[in-house]
């Protein structure tokens, strides 16, 4: 899928009018575009998230939507763990200080970070990625695991001794709060001033789900007021992040450009999976990786 600007669609109107399949990732696929693609039968995104697709509009037109929910699990969990470690140990900040020539003697407390091992990790969203993160934290760092989802996750409790709790309890007891939720109408701005105020002042907040799940202004205020200690962020309300964002001037914020699945191996695997998904969908095979399989009934 090329850049789907109105100009691109208009210039290639004949191609879009005949297309039966659509493959892409970040482009918005809405009702207006679908009107120009009357023969479209299936779409496939090179991602696990699909909030840029109008699922209702696709379903109403009996167009299948495929995604890649499994191939990126371990890589995104690695990114989450990297954000946990880099924020707690201030890796980015102190590395920049070394490069700036500030390491002129033995370091003192103003260079110190905080431990990760044996600290409590709260996971909001115990899906595949949450489970992979819990595995790393539990077995690799001896971290007690709290989690919050709609239903109890028996496997997480059995494998990692994870404890289910309501969101308020998780916020109050966790040393690290990792948010791994998709963007929906229900999750939009799920985290705001009220939630940050309930966290420990020593707590570190991690978001690698979707940016708009967090009220970014509330996060900035919480960091500025010292309500939370630090943040590691892979996603933002507006991407790319504005160069004027206060987050970029905060030493206690690690901000990376939505790199969750960004390794050569995983991005290739996602692309290959998305192509296979599109072929399967066009052949009526919707047993896996389909968001709206009932369309094929």
TrEMBL record:
<dbReference type="GO" id="GO:0120509">
    <property type="term" value="F:hydroxypyruvate reductase (NADPH) activity"/>
</dbReference>
<dbReference type="Pfam" id="PF02826">
    <property type="entry name" value="2-Hacid_dh_C"/>
</dbReference>
<dbReference type="GO" id="GO:0030267">
    <property type="term" value="F:glyoxylate reductase (NADPH) activity"/>
</dbReference>
<comment type="subunit">
    <text>Homodimer.</text>
</comment>
<keyword id="KW-0521">NADP</keyword>
<feature type="domain" description="D-isomer specific 2-hydroxyacid dehydrogenase NAD-binding">
    <location>
        <begin position="81"/>
        <end position="260"/>
    </location>
</feature>
<keyword id="KW-0520">NAD</keyword>
<comment type="function">
    <text>Catalyzes the NADPH-dependent reduction of glyoxylate and hydroxypyruvate into glycolate and glycerate, respectively.</text>
</comment>
<dbReference type="InterPro" id="IPR036291">
    <property type="entry name" value="NAD(P)-bd_dom_sf"/>
</dbReference>
<feature type="active site" description="Proton donor">
    <location>
        <position position="258"/>
    </location>
</feature>
<dbReference type="Pfam" id="PF00389">
    <property type="entry name" value="2-Hacid_dh"/>
</dbReference>
<protein>
    <recommendedName>
        <fullName>Glyoxylate/hydroxypyruvate reductase B</fullName>
        <ecNumber>1.1.1.79</ecNumber>
        <ecNumber>1.1.1.81</ecNumber>
    </recommendedName>
</protein>
<dbReference type="GO" id="GO:0008465">
    <property type="term" value="F:hydroxypyruvate reductase (NADH) activity"/>
</dbReference>
<dbReference type="InterPro" id="IPR050223">
    <property type="entry name" value="D-isomer_2-hydroxyacid_DH"/>
</dbReference>
<feature type="domain" description="D-isomer specific 2-hydroxyacid dehydrogenase catalytic">
    <location>
        <begin position="7"/>
        <end position="292"/>
    </location>
</feature>
<feature type="active site">
    <location>
        <position position="210"/>
    </location>
</feature>
<dbReference type="InterPro" id="IPR006139">
    <property type="entry name" value="D-isomer_2_OHA_DH_cat_dom"/>
</dbReference>
<keyword id="KW-0963">Cytoplasm</keyword>
<dbReference type="InterPro" id="IPR029753">
    <property type="entry name" value="D-isomer_DH_CS"/>
</dbReference>
<keyword id="KW-0670">Pyruvate</keyword>
<comment type="similarity">
    <text>Belongs to the D-isomer specific 2-hydroxyacid dehydrogenase family. GhrB subfamily.</text>
</comment>
<dbReference type="GO" id="GO:0051287">
    <property type="term" value="F:NAD binding"/>
</dbReference>
<dbReference type="InterPro" id="IPR006140">
    <property type="entry name" value="D-isomer_DH_NAD-bd"/>
</dbReference>
<dbReference type="GO" id="GO:0005829">
    <property type="term" value="C:cytosol"/>
</dbReference>
<keyword id="KW-0560">Oxidoreductase</keyword>
<dbReference type="InterPro" id="IPR023756">
    <property type="entry name" value="Glyo/OHPyrv_Rdtase_B"/>
</dbReference>
<feature type="active site">
    <location>
        <position position="239"/>
    </location>
</feature>
<dbReference type="GO" id="GO:0005886">
    <property type="term" value="C:plasma membrane"/>
</dbReference>
């Amino acid at each position: 899928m090329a850049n789907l600007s109105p100009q691109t669609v208009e210039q290639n109107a004949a191609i879009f009018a005949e297309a039966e399949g659509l493959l892409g990732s970040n482009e918005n696929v809405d009702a207006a575009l679908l009107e120009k693609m009357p023969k479209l039968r299936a779409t496939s995104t090179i991602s696990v998230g699909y909030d840029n697709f109008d699922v209702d509009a696709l379903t109403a037109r009996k167009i299948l939507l495929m995604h890649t929910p499994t191939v990126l699990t371990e890589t995104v969990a690695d990114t989450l763990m990297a954000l946990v470690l880099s924020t707690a140990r201030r890796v980015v900040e102190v590395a920049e200080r070394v490069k700036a020539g500030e390491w002129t003697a033995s370091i003192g407390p103003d260079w110190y970070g905080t431990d990760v091992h044996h600290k409590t990790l709260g996971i909001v969203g115990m899906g595949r990625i949450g489970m992979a993160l819990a595995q790393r934290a539990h077995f690799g760092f001896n971290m007690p695991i709290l989690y919050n989802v709609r239903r109890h996750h028996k496997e997480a409790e059995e494998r990692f001794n994870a404890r289910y709790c309501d969101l308020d309890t998780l916020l109050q007891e966790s040393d690290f709060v990792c948010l791994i939720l998709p963007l929906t109408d229900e999750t939009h701005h799920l985290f705001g001033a009220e939630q940050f105020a309930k966290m420990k002042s020593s707590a570190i907040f991690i978001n690698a789900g979707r940016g708009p799940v967090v009220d970014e202004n509330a996060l900035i205020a919480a960091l500025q007021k010292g309500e939370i200690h630090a943040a590691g962020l892979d996603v933002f309300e507006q991407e790319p992040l504005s160069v004027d964002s206060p987050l970029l001037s905060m030493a206690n914020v690690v901000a990376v450009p939505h790199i969750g699945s960004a390794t050569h191996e995983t991005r290739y695997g996602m692309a290959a999976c998305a192509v296979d998904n599109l072929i399967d969908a066009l052949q009526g095979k919707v047993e896996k990786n389909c968001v709206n399989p009932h369309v094929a009934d």
